[in-house]
From TrEMBL:
Protein name: Vacuolar membrane protease
GO biological process: proteolysis
Peptidase M28 domain sequence ranges: 100-289
Family: Belongs to the peptidase M28 family.
Organism in which the protein naturally occurs: Pricia antarctica
Length: 765
């Protein structure tokens, strides 16, 4: 009977783990024939397919075609559309000419407007942009169509902003917020984004103040599959990631919601961000957010969403969204501490707790934490050493990444079962003291340093109740213990996977440690198992099975293509040319150009190019000079005014180009502007960065640079001009990549780069 109870309780635990993922998002079913008033994933997919035929970053030919398609689709709904065009300096002094698409649905009231937001540009230069952010645009188009089909007139105006140049520096959103008259009308933003091609869509509340009113409105709208907790946004704020919504919050103090999915991260910003790889369940999840929120917020009071109060919140199967004020954090923590003290006194009085057993219970806890922490921390360096090609997956999440997560979670579980088997003679009630003390200390630290994670105290109450049962009953019901452990299973199972998916395999340590911590919360169940040794062996066998599976899927093919890179660089000042690559492991395709003469790149001899991960070239080789011209540099003005020197320079492309980067030497710059837009003092070059500005060029436009420097300083400007046409340029015979390779994202790739300097000596005018 005991064995049967153990088996059944384990099956219940596994079922609860499964349900924590199953309940997180809808399951796609073909719905093309669905009522016109409802969101149809199939109808949204037709937009995704149309939007992701070719790369359509700013300045690329398909960019204009995508814009025309979106305008036509909005007009089909009977909406009057407009465009907003202009230069904008976005995040990181990235200049571009954005072309926003706008439409407005008039409401019956005179309150603030609801803004629906996503961007239509794809990441330069190879991304097809199906998920990022074709999925967001398609979600808005289909939801607006369905809403209009109801024939209902909203109370609040609905502004539709399909922004441009988000990938370059949030330029389109910046342009709208700074210069469009509608910006002052916006009361709330719903923004749809992607950082992968699958998985659940997470909801982030973004506000400068408290989240109380926004959260309560979100709960009242009742989205069917909410994936949201206050920890996500706490972590998001720590990361160097921004979306268009950031501009609204920072520049206009406008609150909003971000809805973004992050799984299958390896597709992000790559040629594999294609229609065929977008998870249909994920797109359905985006629609399951927008439809109820749209119907709710078009009639809500958007003038009074501000609040000074913050709430802790999380989602849980069957319960939906659970929330409580920050003011409850310390009382709840205090209640847990008092309960712990009362129960430990109760246990000693009943003589069900033994000092020796309690002290002995700290050993398996420390052993499992140490082993699983060390293994998790060193796994990613080990994997990169075993499979050097992984170094070229800059996302840090490999195609077989989910298999590695499964393998090392199983390894952690095996270590836990094996270790606690060796301490099986200690009573379960004694064993639970160490985990309880650890979790209480952990929750206290979170209450101080990461308040958004304070809901971690909730499963601790389940553990306290289970501890009481273990002290009160010699053979408690394992089914009761599973029930008390459900909060731990439902809260932490998604996080065990989500941390590593979101932050890369370098964070496998988060998965192994959180698995261990969750195991401690399940000790009231597992501690009574007599077959812990067998379960440890089963976990170890499964670990090896998954690891072997990952090994056999560690190579690259058409579905799991290796990122590769190649650029051609002309230094006009030195009259020399080089081939260069960012790859750590070359493939035959680019090795044919670098050849046996390739050498490790020297930082000082190559142009500095900005990239997301500050990645430099790995290998270079001398190349034949080609008749490719760099930009024309025209000194329009060079004047001394008092103690300052005013410079005006016009940079004009002499070929079709996509990007111009301007760097300076150590000379201080008093002020600067580009194409009439001033750079803030915060954005001017300093000892940490010499980059002045990056201009993502449309229509081969010129760059107008105006600088003020001390007259006693010598200024050196370096102009790196690039075109992403290496594979198509008639001067070269670079073949297309093999099917098992894609352009490396996040770097300037498939490019012809010219380097040219301009020197302004002291006393020279």
């Amino acid at each position: 009977m005991k064995k049967l109870a153990s088996v059944l309780s384990l099956l219940l635990v596994l079922l609860a783990i499964y349900w924590s993922f199953r309940a997180s998002m809808p399951v796609y079913k073909s719905d093309a024939a669905l009522s016109d008033t409802l969101f149809s994933t199939d109808r949204a997919l037709t937009h995704v397919k149309a939007l992701s035929q070719k790369p359509h970053g700013v300045g690329f030919p398909a960019h204009e075609k995508v814009r025309k398609y979106l305008i036509d689709e909005l007009k089909k709904m009977g909406l009057k559309t407009s465009t907003q065009e202009g230069y904008s300096l976005g995040k990181g002094t990235n200049l571009s000419k954005a072309k926003n698409i706008l439409a407005r649905i008039e409401g019956t009231g005179n309150g603030k407007a609801l803004l629906l937001l996503s961007h239509y540009d794809s990441s330069p230069h190879s991304s097809l942009g199906a998920s990022d952010a074709g999925s967001g645009v398609a979600t808005i188009l289909e939801s607006v169509r369905a809403f209009l089909s109801t024939g209902k007139q909203p109370k609040n105006d609905i502004i539709i902003l399909i922004s441009d140049a988000e990938e370059l520096g949030l330029n389109g959103a910046q342009l709208f917020v700074d210069k469009h008259p509608w910006a002052k009308d916006v009361g709330l933003v719903l923004n749809f984004e992607a950082r992968g091609s699958g998985g659940p869509s997470y909801a982030f509340i973004e506000t400068n103040r408290g989240n109380q009113n926004l959260l309560l409105e979100f709960i009242e709208a009742h989205p069917e599959y909410p994936m949201a907790n206050s920890l996500y946004y706490s972590i998001y704020k720590m990361l160097p990631n921004d979306t268009d919504l950031t501009v609204f919050r920072e520049n206009r103090d406008i609150d909003g919601f971000n809805f973004a999915f992050i799984d299958d991260h390896y597709d992000y910003h790559t040629a594999q961000d294609a229609y065929e790889r977008l998870d249909k369940n994920t797109l359905a999840h985006q629609g399951s957010y927008l439809m109820p929120l749209l119907h709710h917020f078009v009639n809500a009071d958007l003038n009074h969403l501000k609040s000074l109060n913050d709430f802790v919140y999380f989602n849980m199967p069957f319960f939906g969204m659970v929330s409580y004020p920050f003011e409850w954090i310390w009382p709840m923590f205090g209640l847990a501490v008092i309960s712990f003290i009362v129960l430990i006194i109760y246990g000693f009085r009943r003589q069900t707790l033994k000092v020796r057993g309690i002290l002995g219970g700290f050993l398996p806890l420390l052993i499992t934490l140490a082993i699983n922490g060390i293994v998790g921390f060193y796994t990613w360096p080990m994997l990169k050493s075993m499979y050097p090609g992984y170094q070229d997956i800059l996302h840090g999440f490999t195609y077989n990444g989910h298999t590695y997560i499964a393998a090392f979670v199983l390894f952690a579980v095996s270590v836990c079962f094996g270790t606690y088997y060796n301490f099986r003679r200690i009573a379960v009630a004694d064993l639970l003291v160490a985990p309880l003390l650890l979790w209480i200390v952990l929750c206290g630290l979170l209450a101080v340093y990461l308040e958004g994670a304070s809901f971690f105290i909730v499963p601790v109450f389940g553990l306290l109740a289970a501890w009481y049962v273990a002290m009160d009953q010699k053979r408690p019901s394992l089914f009761l213990m599973v029930f008390l452990a459900l909060p731990a299973i439902w809260l932490y199972s998604p996080l065990i996977v989500g941390f590593t998916v979101g932050l890369g395999l370098k964070m496998l340590v988060a998965s192994t440690l959180l698995t261990t911590l969750t195991f401690f919360l399940l000790l009231p169940v597992f501690g009574f198992y007599r077959n812990k040794k067998s379960l440890a062996y089963i976990g170890l066998v499964l670990f090896f099975g998954y690891f072997v599976s990952a090994h056999f899927n560690s190579g690259f093919d058409a579905d799991t293509a290796k990122p590769s890179s190649l650029v051609y660089i002309i230094n006009e000042d030195a009259n020399s040319a080089q081939w260069a690559t960012y790859d750590q492991v070359l493939i035959d395709w680019n090795n044919a150009f670098l050849g046996k003469e390739k050498q490790s790149a020297e930082t000082g001899s190559l142009p500095i190019l900005s990239s997301k991960y500050n990645l430099g070239f790995s290998y270079v080789a001398d190349a034949e000079m080609k008749g490719i011209k760099g930009p024309s540099l025209e000194k329009k003005r060079d004047t001394i005014i008092g103690e300052e020197r005013l410079l005006e320079i016009r940079i004009v492309p002499q070929r079709n180009v996509n990007r111009l980067e301007i760097f300076t030497n150590n000379s201080p710059i008093i002020s600067a502007s580009v194409n009439g837009l001033p750079l803030s003092s915060y954005d001017l070059p300093n000892k940490n960065t010499h980059r002045l500005v990056t201009h993502y060029i449309s229509d081969n436009d010129a760059t107008e640079l105006r600088l003020t420097i001390p007259k006693t300083e010598r200024l050196v400007l370096t102009f790196n001009e690039a075109s992403n046409d290496l594979l198509q340029h008639p001067f070269f015979e670079v073949p297309q990549r093999p099917a098992n390779s894609i352009p490396m994202p996040f770097v300037l790739n498939d490019a012809i780069i010219t380097v040219k300097t301009l020197v302004f000596d002291i006393g020279e005018e």
